[in-house]
Amino acid sequence: MTRNDDALRQHLSRALGWEEAHAGFEAAVAKLPAKLRGKRARGFEHSPWELVEHIRLAQRDLLEFCTSSKYVAGEWPADYWPKSPAPPSASSWKSSVDAVAKDRKALQDFVARAPDLTAEIPHAGGKTYLRSILLVLDHNAYHVGQLVMARKLLGSWPS
């Protein structure tokens, strides 16, 4: 099948993981000491764990929104933010970071194969696939920026 939107699809796929205008997710979480993952910097609302887990939960929700006809929205804000500022276990941080990368890859694959990015999602009340992908891009960039700022305030951002 020939499509006229291949350039757009390639651009969106790259944009989901790029680090052109700012630090990307992987740079923002790299080498963050475990003792700081659950700390909130003075005057800052969220810990690094809360931001990472929120990115994971929201990105996963948007992936399911785009791909599942059985999608049911979670309860806001309870289902989109972790219950605690600290990871519940030592392995939770790694699992969450890995899930963000895995779901980002699934979104990139979805962008490549979606029949029409401007089409309305059948169960979404007029919202399009393109809108949802742009929402993921915007949401993740915003919270990755917060993650970088939290690390700077905690004294853990590379110089």
Summarize the model shown.
Helices cover 53% and strands 0% of the residues. By secondary structure, the chain is mainly α. The longest helix is centred in the C-terminal third of the chain and has 25 residues, at 129-153.
Shape: globular
Beta percentage is: under 5%
Oligomeric state of this protein: single chain
Uncertain regions: pLDDT < 50 for 5+ in a row? Answer: none
Mean pLDDT: 94
Cα-atom radius of gyration: 17 Å
Q: Which architecture per CATH?
A: Up-down Bundle
What's the order of the H and E elements?
HHHHH
Distance between the termini: 48 Å
Number of domains as seen in the coordinates: 1
Major sheet: size, sense and barrel closure?
none
What do we call the CATH homologous superfamily? dinb family like domain
**DSSP summary, beta strand count:** 0
Number of helices: 5
Helix residue percentage: 40-55%
